[in-house]
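Long-time lurker. I teach an intro course on protein structure, and each term I like to show students one example going from raw sequence to a predicted 3D structure in token notation. This year I'd like something fresh instead of my usual example. Would anyone be willing to generate the tokens for the chain below so I can use it in lecture? Attribution to the forum is fine with me.
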Amino acid sequence: MSSPADLARMIDAARRVVVFTGAGISTESGIPDFRSPGGVWSKMQPIYFDDFRRDEAMRREAWRRVYDGVARWVGAEPNAGHHAVARLIAQGKASSVITQNVDNLHQDSGVPDDKVIELHGNASYIKCLECGLRHELEDFREPFTDRGEIPACRACGGLVKTATISFGQAMPEAQMARAEEETLACDLFLVLGSSLVVYPAAGFPLMARRNGARLAIVNRDPTEQDAIADLVLHAPIGEVMTAAVS
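-- Reply from a regular --
Happy to contribute to a lecture. Here you go:
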């Protein structure tokens, strides 16, 4: 059976680590995951991208969720797992963090923005769907909560939404390309807290393994890729990473 000490030795022996994170690393900060019982999608239905664009009622519901904080995707604090990942980046041992999460906790833990590759976007700010201008959540809180005004871009008047990738929305091409480049350059691909069922993101560990990298998976529950991994730990991520990363 593998141990945190085995993971530490694997990290020490690696030339270039890529860290891949899913919802499981952030549940230890109190952010619910998406698909398990009690997760986000067991409590409310996702709003599809086309519905958001087409239907004002769907946009209003989406903004209600943002400002009610019902999904609890933002506002938490990084945990021990995030801080251990930040140490790997600061030490130069890990080159990047590829994340499925939208909570900004890697950046909040000290990982530079340019080292975080967000496959599913970021819920901590707003982006115009027309001109791409960034807005902050607080820019529209009062107009929406006090007067019911649906946010619109202050530059072009276009539709805005949180900078997440919604169901039915195209994956971000630049981030996907960067993730592939990093995956093919690493010799250790470290998965933390991902069930590895959501594609195309879950294809990156397979890509790394096929390219000759070692694969380590730390996740609460078994994944479909455990059988091909060099190391598997079903244990709390903060505990494992604190023991494995000095």
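Some talking points for your students: The chain has two domains: 1-30+77-119+171-246, 32-72+121-164. The first strand starts at residue 17 and ends at 21.
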